[in-house]
From TrEMBL:
GO terms for biological process: microtubule-based movement. Signal peptide: none annotated. PANTHER family: CYTOPLASMIC DYNEIN 1 HEAVY CHAIN 1, MALE FERTILITY FACTOR KL5. Pfam families: DHC_N1. Residues 5-166 form the Dynein heavy chain tail domain. This is DYH5 protein. The gene is Dnah5_0. GO terms for molecular function: dynein intermediate chain binding; dynein light intermediate chain binding. Coiled coil: none annotated. It comes from Rhagologus leucostigma.
Length: 168
C-alpha cells in the first residue's frame, strides 16, 4: 500500500505536468503581424517534436512499469492517466499529420518569398494544394487553421511585393 501511494503521487505529478503542456498547447499563438507561411510549418514541426518526446517518455519502460504496478493495485489515478495519454497521442498525431500536409506547401514558400511579383504563376498550384489540405486533412481543415495559413500566405505576398517595390 505504501509503495502504491508513492507511485500514485508520482503519477499525479506527471499528470499535472502533462496537463500543463496540453494547456500551453491550446493557448493562442502570438506571432508577428507579417509572419509568412513557413512559420506555420515550423510551429507544427516544433509541436510534433515536443509531443513525440513526451510520447517517448510515456512509453518508456520506467513509466510502463509504474503504470502496470498501479494497474495491478487497481489504482484510481489510472483513469486520469489514460485520458491524458489519449490526449497526448491525439495531439502528437495532429502535429505529425499537419507537418506532413504543410510540407506539401513547402515548395511554394521559396517562390512566394522571392522579391518579384512574378509569383503569380505559383498561385494556382498553391491554392490547389491548400484546397487538397482542406479537403483531406483530418486535423488541419478547421477554419482557424485555414485562416491562419491564408493570413500567412497573404503576409508573404505583401512582403514580397514591398521588397520588390523598394528595390525597383
Amino acid at each position: 500500500t505504501e509503495v502504491t501511494e508513492k507511485l500514485e503521487e508520482v503519477v499525479m505529478i506527471w499528470t499535472k505536468q502533462i496537463r500543463q503542456v496540453l494547456v500551453e498547447n491550446e493557448q493562442i499563438r502570438r506571432e508577428a503581424d507579417d509572419v509568412g507561411p513557413s512559420a506555420e510549418l515550423e510551429h507544427w514541426k516544433s509541436r510534433m517534436s515536443s509531443f513525440n518526446s513526451l510520447l517517448d517518455e510515456i512509453k518508456s519502460s520506467r513509466v510502463k512499469k509504474i503504470i502496470s504496478i498501479l494497474q495491478a493495485a487497481r489504482s484510481k489515478t489510472l483513469k486520469q492517466w489514460k485520458e491524458l495519454d489519449g490526449r497526448i497521442t491525439i495531439a502528437a498525431n495532429e502535429a505529425k499529420d499537419n507537418v506532413r500536409y504543410l510540407y506539401t506547401l513547402d515548395k511554394f514558400f521559396g517562390p512566394l518569398a522571392n522579391a518579384s511579383p512574378v509569383m503569380m504563376e505559383h498561385i494556382p498550384g498553391l491554392m490547389n494544394t491548400v484546397c487538397m489540405i482542406y479537403c483531406t486533412s483530418p486535423y488541419y481543415n478547421t477554419s482557424e487553421h485555414m485562416t491562419s495559413l491564408f493570413l500567412k500566405i497573404t503576409n508573404q505576398m505583401i512582403n514580397t511585393c514591398k521588397t520588390y517595390l523598394c528595390e525597383g
